[in-house]
Amino acid sequence: MSHPEWSDSSRRPLPVILVRGFGGIDTIDERKLTYQGFNDGSVYPQKRGENYIYEGLILRFMKSDWRYQDATNVVGYYANEITAPRVIPDALKVFDPSFFQGKVIIDPAMALRLLQSKDDLCHSLWVFRYYDLGDRRFSVYGEALVRLIEFIRALIKVKQGISAKVNVLAHSMGGLVVRDAVQRAYPKRGERADQSINKIVTLGTPHKGIVFQLVREFRWLNLESANELEHFNPEMQKDPNNEASYVNFEKYFPLDRLLSVVGTNYRSYASQGATVLNRLFSLAGEDGLNYNRSDGLVKQSYAYIEGAPRTFVHKSHGGFDSLISARESFEVAARFFYGDVRSRLRQVRAKVKRGFDFFGKSEFFFGLSVKPRGVDFDLFHQSKEAENCYGPFRSPDFSEPSIQLSSPWADENQLIWEGYLNTRSSLTQTDLVMRLEFYVGERDLFGMGFSDNIVFSKQYYVRAILQPTLQLYLYTGEEFADDADPLKGAMPMRKVKGGWEFDIGGTGFVGTYRLELDRIPEDGQPIPFG
């Protein structure tokens, strides 16, 4: 569903709000965490240089080109209603007095400091500490988030004279809190969320619930967190009569402005109990106990909303080197917020040339991983280990799926990957290079012959020369790094309607793929390269 009155998105620097995930039955420990875990990072001993240490989302934002500052302490959360102070400084009288009373309080001293500073608040960073509210209801969380957003916007309007929106990055249940603000709190105010929120990135959010959620069976326990747990119930999330269900999200916010980062590494998730339950509560098409297509807590297919961009990252739901602490999360989110090129890769045709056990029953899986030049992380990752390849398919051209696909194409036109790139992050800023790693595997359902064969696995490099006119080349090696002759070994891509096509192949597989590139202006809809 598309609403012509929806506002355009922007890739300008805008305030960023971080929203944490679910804390469990008791939230005392979570309230003690100053930055709600967003300051945790990871160390990768096997890597070197800039790729050795990742400092966490907050520090990475603050050290980035946008020079984000931490303005967390400007907001206070209270369990009981607070009345407005008797004396408000004259400088703050430009704000609505309601900002300084209620349960979500704008600290007058911090507000005054920010108002008088020379800081560009479009580069500010905020942490939404909703557990401090003490009232564990989604309706309260959503309204409090809206209140925070509206104060940030009012502050920038007063100080800088511009109507800025905000970007939101949420982990786990935090994404459901954001959706409650979008689908309930803003409509309750008679407003549309897209007028205040620019883009949303969710990390491991159970948009469709958690498969082993059994809260309906335990209501007699009268848990304080019952309202939260109910939002993890798949039945609630798919109920079209529930305005906050995922099936109704597109009525309230543009799908192309929501990016879901989906975790795939259940093995490193600390809660082995949840990992086992995800295997036991398998979904249709997952082949029962044979696979565990989850991040340890959330099923891969439950962590995104159809029609909205998504990307796969081989990290677990939480803990060390997880979705909340891995560099991939920052890099993917930053490109979605600020990238100036949108990339889409589609399959045009394909043919498996070997396999097909004579006495067996073969099925095929197709996977892709995307890595930008000069860094040690994937923007998109599919592999046998991640258990997230497209398929299974029973025909050699991938046109005949099995009875029910466990991992369908990203859209009806065989979309494989949709991602965002930033020319400012390019080593040369005159071209973009990314590595595409293709994988085709075969599984024999009857166990005849060899099972789980690798039919095809090969890396290619795509180079886009941006100036003076866009030109795309395909490489099988790293010849593009040769300063003397960067076009050595380059194969020009074919310009076709809608994009550029190229061929890949080997002894077991051949295929044709189309890359679509769109320029993203500072404000407005993506525009195809001419």
Word description of this protein:
The chain folds into two domains: 12-206 and 252-267 and 300-338, Rossmann fold (3-Layer(aba) Sandwich), CATH 3.40.50; 340-530, no CATH class. Helices cover 17% and strands 27% of the residues. The radius of gyration is 24 Å and the shape is globular. It has 530 residues and is α/β, with parallel strands linked by helices. The longest helix has 23 residues, at 138-160.
Report the uncertain regions.
Answer: 215-222
Enumerate the strands of the largest sheet in spatial order, edge to edge or round the barrel: 4-7-1-8-9-10-11
Strand content: 25-35%
Tally the beta strands: 23
The CATH architecture of the largest domain would be 3-Layer(aba) Sandwich
The largest pleated sheet is described as: 7 strands, parallel
Distance between the termini: 28 Å
Shape: globular
Q: Report the C-alpha radius of gyration, rounded.
A: 24 Å
Residues in helix, %:
10-25%
CATH class of the largest domain: Alpha Beta
Helical region count? 9
Count of the domains:
2
User: What fold name goes in the CATH topology slot of the largest domain?
Assistant: Rossmann fold
Which secondary-structure class do the elements indicate? alpha/beta
Q: Calculate the mean pLDDT score and round it.
A: 85
